[in-house]
Amino acid sequence: EVQLVESGGGLVSPGGSLRLSCAASGFTFDNSLVGWVRQAAGKGLEWVSHIYTYSAYSHHADSLKDRFTISTDVAKNTLYLQMNNLQSEDTAVYYCAKAAPNWRVFDYWGQGTQVIVSS
To answer: How far apart are CA 88 and CA 105, in angstroms?
Structure first.
């Protein structure tokens, strides 16, 4: 059974940093495509970043790539998202997700972790 469990969210002041973690199990993590998607209240899903775990080749949304960094620890089957210089518009629920074998859609999602950026 595929499981994705996020952690690390919380309340942070503008300009602060957070690192989100996603513990993965039930699939071959070191040969997969995994990523982060966020959803602000009342808005649709927004792709943040994804990474190919076997090569560590990653993509980030253009608007976020200067502040957010995706990474993995394949020994721990864990995905990370380092978020720096957080702003109020980064407030959202952040989900980690695993891509389907065709790598065209995310087929499994975690339960999400809330990030609130507020003074």
So the answer is: 28
Q: What span, in angstroms and rounded, lies between the C-alpha atoms of 114 and 62?
A: 22
Residue 118 per-residue DSSP state: -
57 and 38 in contact (C-beta within 8 Å)? no
- Neighbouring-strand partners of residue 88: none
Backbone angles phi, psi at 89, to 5 degrees: -70, -5
Phi/psi of residue 4, each to 5°? -135, 120
Express each pLDDT in 29-66 by its tens digit: 999 999 999 999 999 999 999 999 998 899 999 999 99
Give the residue from 106, 91, 9 showing the smallest Cα distance to 50. 106
